[in-house]
Amino acid sequence: MENFYLILVIVLFALAISDLIVGVSNDAVNFLNSAVGSKAAPKWVIFLMASLGVLIGATFSSGMMEVARKGIFHPDMFVFSEIMIIFLAVMITDVILLDMFNTFGMPTSTTVSIVFELLGAAVAVSIVKIKTAGGSVVMELSQYINSSKALAIITGILLSVFIAFTVGAIVQYLTRLVFTFKYRGPMKYFGSVFGGLAITAITYFIVIKGMKGSTFASIELANGETVQDWVKHHTGLMLLYSFGFWVVLIQLLRWIFNIKILKVVVLAGTFALAMAFAGNDLVNFIGVPLAGYNSFQAWVADGASNPDTFSMAMLAGKVGTPTYMLLIAGLVMIVTLIMSKKAKSVIATSLDLSRQNEGDERFGSSFAARVIVRGTTKFNKRLNSILPSAVTEGVGTRFQPHTYVAEDDQDPPSFDKVRASVNLVVASILIAIGTSLKLPLSTTYVTFMVAMGTSLSDRAWDRESAVYRISGVFAVIGGWFLTALIAFTVSGLVALLIALSGKFMVFVFVVVAVAMVIRTHTMMKKREKKIAAEDEDIEEADAHEQILEKSSKQVVKAIVASSQVLALGIQGFIKEDRNALKKVQEISDTFSKKAKRNRDRVYSTVTKLTDGTLETSHFYVQVMEHKREMAHALHFMLAPVIFHVENNHKPFTDEQVKELKEMTSQIDTFFNYVLHAVKAENFDELEQLIAKRDQLLTYLSKMEKSQIKRIKNKLVNTRNSQLFFKVISEIEHLLLHTVNLVKAHRDFIKYTRDTK
User: Fold this and answer.
1) Which pTM value belongs to this model?
2) Confidence of residue 726 (pLDDT cuts 50, 70, 90)
3) What is the separation of C-alpha 672 from the centre of its chain, rounded to a whole number of angstroms?
4) Which CATH number fits domain 536-754: 3.30.565.10, 1.20.58.220, 3.40.50.1000, 1.10.3720.10?
């Protein structure tokens, strides 16, 4: 029996390593998005500061480990075998859940995950225990669950969302009023004071307030006083010295090495937030396995007695966490931080919602977002009508947009270093306060909502983007609530099945967890390949031949996709092959998304075509428009065809099938001719191409007349006729736009080369 539980402890630690990897992939956004988004330093410098913060912060997390042991349930009400079921269910669920969110690029909360997983598993095991003893779940469940502490944690997490957004918005608004977007001037006079205050505030909350949770707080000094007591007695002096030291150091760095003040603040903030993250969130990854290990040690020390009777009351007391374990966990986090590709996906979501400049919006609009934007716009108009014009104009000048980024920068920062500094300072202080109060606040919630608050104050959410940004925030917050629900439910079900089916069910769920992680990893790789295969965007730095090459690739892919969808779609319809039609629909949807993406980026692409004439940009816009119309024609042709087959309506007659096959053969020949002309840039054959299109249009007209005869002879019904005419109509549109696409592409090539 002892060997069995030893294996379970090993499984717990294996899951902990996996959890560290997927958890850090999710939480890296918390402390990297500000530095990465503002491009405060080269990435290796940013990662170095973050890594140091994680490593040092790991030693501050010892006090937070108590949450995993007794924060959610009363351990004295459970025996060793039950505790192990709870811990295993939590870790299995956590790995699966976090990996799923990472794969879809959605930042979620590891704190909320672990809290609700512990709650769900504890409730499930408690119910089984109460029912087995013949008790009442309603009356006795409160004896097992530490409801007051759990409620305090959940309330703290929810309040942190509102507080973080509000504080971030207010601090950023005041900061921007002082420094404006032309911050380099004011920074000459107030920069060192601003930097000194920011880093001193970080020092106070990270080092002084967070001291009592660290592993070295109880170390005794020569005078018999502990480190924590010494810091407590000399707090004021330390803050004064810290402020003076940082003001002088920052000013000297500026004078001697010309190092920008805000870069120092952002890097110090990145270090501090990474440290706060490790101090607060490390418990989410290794707290449960360490609690399981401590339980196993206590059980073995008792002589490995009956695991079904050995009480876990020892977990209610204070149990120290070895520093070397915290450091090992910190090192795993650092390696993951540097290597994880999923972390980049999660960071991209946060930056898309907070960037200052225009660009593709990741999220669509929602009804709630539209209502909020409409209401806010009306309120703003009323407020401006009430306030004196001098006040509104004065404030407006402080928020006048300005950038120090060169116009030819291909990858500009998402926002400036002033906002990055506020993001980091406010978030690290709020998280450190929570850590000092031993409340496992969600670092994801805090940092994300601070970033949203600062972007709102910076007027990054203007009328062109606000509805999409707010919809994105709602989507992320909705995912957070979904996290809680899924974590509670899945963890409870896993614990219930293990408790009822036997402990060997643990290994079944471990296999399931591993399989799901592998599956999501495969999904991620497929997505990367898909993104790599997408059309390349035209960049300002591209030479003329590069521009032409990229444009030609877009046109060729449009023609190939059109040919495939039409031929395979008609073939699948004739054979009534639902699986084939689904595959065709995937090709059509992919083509449609690419066409929309290219058309939506027309504005940014045209601004990059600085060397070309107006005609160059004009014909590029036409290429994108015709490509989009081709995608529309295919979609509107394919949708009713699939609907017809899905609902098992009568197939076409033999005569109709014969006509469709002949039409498909002719169109296939036409598309091959088009493809050859585009690839070879042989536009002298355009007249022959138009003649072939006209022949096809004549044949389609003939098909329509044949259908009318069938209608008069009552050989077909209404549904048959509607579908037949719809297919013919959309194919006509497709052919017209295909030729227009080739014409526009020809003219784009001509005028682009004329500007060489």
Assistant:
1) 0.66
2) very high
3) 41
4) 1.20.58.220
